[in-house]
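Bug #77: duplicate submission created two jobs. Keeping one. Sequence:
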Amino acid sequence: MTEAAGTPRFRRILVALDTAERSGAAIEEAARLAAGLRAELVGVFIEDTELMHAAALSVTRIVHCQTRTLAAFDPASMRRAYRVRSAETRRSLETAAAHWRIKCSFQIERGIYAEQLLASIREGDLLALTSSGRQRQSRAGAAALGAVARTPCPLFLMRQARAPGRPVVVLYEGSPDALSLGRAERASGEPS
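Kept job's structure:
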């Protein structure tokens, strides 16, 4: 699985995406990592069917925090919101890939978040997830963290934003790829 100079050979960097605003930061971090590892960047946008089922309930409403008003929440508006957000996310992914001069692809999956995320993983993948102090407060964040324990591939847990040159923490589990990945991440800089 390793190539010359001890750099792990990942064919794809799989970045999990959803409707959260932090997806843009996740895409940029994952693209930078993919460029450093010369891997394809794969964005997986997951439409959560459990959320769609909740939208179909007659008692479900959206609470707008700023205006403190309620709005209807139905499957049709949920599908529209998913279409709009997935199109924005795809453009962000393609922009980041062009900036870092890497190959990218985008796929939309529908199902239970953690299950769809795990189903998208193939051999040679590295799963990139974002982490924030409020991770467990979001449904997708909690599901993604739950998937971490079951993932069959290496995991790259990204902070919201990491300044270049900052330390990288690597959980060394005995594989040479863990340390090589940490070195590659630490060394990655601006696109050439």
